[in-house]
Amino acid sequence: MQDLLQASGYRKNGKIWTYQDARGAFRYNDGDASETRILNIMQSATDTSLFSKELAGAISDWPSNYHLSPIRANLFRPIKHMLRGPILEIGAGCGAITRFLGEEGHTVLALEGSARRANTIAERCRDLPNVTVLAEPLQHFEVQQKFATVTLIGVLEYARVFFGAEAGQDAIDHMLAKARSFLEPGGQLIIAIENQIGLKYLAGFPEDHLSRPMVGVEDQYTQTGPVTFGKRELSHRVKAAGLPHQKYWFPFPDYKLPRFVLNDEALDADLPTDFSSLIRSAVNTDPQRPSLLAFEQDLAWDVIARNGLQGDLANSFLLVSSDRAIPAHDVMATHFTGGREAHYQKLVRFVRKGNELVVEREALKPSEDDAGRPLKINLENESFENGLLWRDIGKRCLLQDGWSAAHLANWIGVWREALAQHLTGMGHPAPSALTDMIPGSLLDAIPRNLIVGEQQRFIDLEWSYDQPIEFGYLIFRALWDLLSDMRGVAPPTSDTKDKIGDLIFQTYEHLGYDVAAQTIIDYYVADLRFHSSVTGINLQPNASALVAPLGRRINFANIRDLVSQSRKLTEQNQALMQELEAERRKVREMLDAVNGYSLRTA
Q1: Less packed terminus of the chain by CB within 10 Å, N or C?
Q2: Parallel, antiparallel, or unpaired: how do β-strands 147-153 and 87-90 relate?
Q3: What is the reported pTM?
Q4: Where are the beta strands (DSSP E) in 378-520?
Q5: Contact criterion met (CB below 8 Å) for 156 and 176
Q6: Residue 158 CA from chain centroid, whole number
Q7: Tens digit of pLDDT for each residue in 295-320?
Q8: Are 160 and 170 in contact (CB under 8 A)?
């Protein structure tokens, strides 16, 4: 690769390659302070690998999360089998994807217009001789090499801003043609971009590039600004560039930090492929969620799935395109973990095998010293189970006006019966007292993993302790998992406790258990220890966690009420101001009269 660059007029400049003569400055960045900080982090880090604890520990805001999180690489894991080198990565940013491609052993040319970002990539990949970094804008880039894979990850949307158009061809088509020109016959162009009409943008998320809601949905894009597309329009443009064979994957919450990626083949497969619960779980991890939305998008995915619109309303697209046919693939979807110690990171594949769908699990970074850890992760395969997750039913309960602790206890009661049946099947007696001990293998047998339908069954029992656990603690985990994740609830009955800890205590009482407040605190501390083991972070008890009140859900009805109240207050204020102004006039008249009298008497 380096001989190729040298023959094309480029020269080595420190750790990166640049053109031998000066080029115009590239204007895009996330802010000088942020980008300089990320470069400094890379330069000082001793470990720049994908799962580096140093880099993860340096995440403190959105730019550092975007550039340093190992979750970025999840975008390419579902299509890892399709990647072929050499790879040209256009607009490589700060190297998050570059690092993944390099660790996979591919020969990579990372093309980045910003010299500072190019240096950041070079620092991140300094131990990977198969990665070469070139600081050069795409419009100036020319080499005789053809590539098996070319990528545009979060780049195409900026074509009108940084790339420019040619006569008779707009900037988007021009960039696609340029990227296409570097493909070898049968090569593939991989594009990741936001969906202009993605559900989160319909719900009120700000447009990613312009930071205002509804800009994309209302098509307020300009000819010199960023732009995104819906699925059909994107497909037409890529086809016009000479790449008619296309396959889509849909990353959730979006392509930037994906936790779940859905293959478009799953939408047409004659299989039990309702992945709504996994989509809901993924969209709830979106770090860019605003405080006010028109609706909760996670609650809408069931309806969208029933109408086959997951692809059209996905928040982002991952598109693989080629001039030749792209083989089908048996992996219908892929789910990823995040925010964990490297040895606890895993991916889950949903694989079509004949008329069945099989759930296959794999450690992303297998560890050799698992034997000494009391907390184990389950990587066993199992058949896919269709049905409702009981946790989702609990969430919907809390979003109904007039819910109560009694409703919450009834919800827990159904789970308790399912747990008792599961224990009986294991040859273990059903618990009756909070202090009864149950196998540590059921640590994850909580409502988020209980499928209800014709049969009730626990799935994905991911975690297990090598020692038994208290039944009362598992009830706490079931309640805490639901309540601590609620961004807002509907108004409950007047006798329902408002604070999370009090509500948990009240629910235990409705279940018929006599529990001390200190016991609830002990369960909370035990759960913190569990999460500390998973994340590798020493989490400390937060005195306000259990006394925090449940927030109230804000929706359009609330907004209308607030607007109505605001108008009434405005009208009242205007009337009051008029009264005050009338009083001021009277006072001024009285003062004028007094002053006039004083002057006359003088």
Answers
A1: C
A2: parallel
A3: 0.88
A4: 382-383, 388-389, 437-438, 450-452, 457-458, 463-465, 469-470
A5: yes
A6: 22
A7: 888 889 989 998 989 999 999 999 99
A8: yes
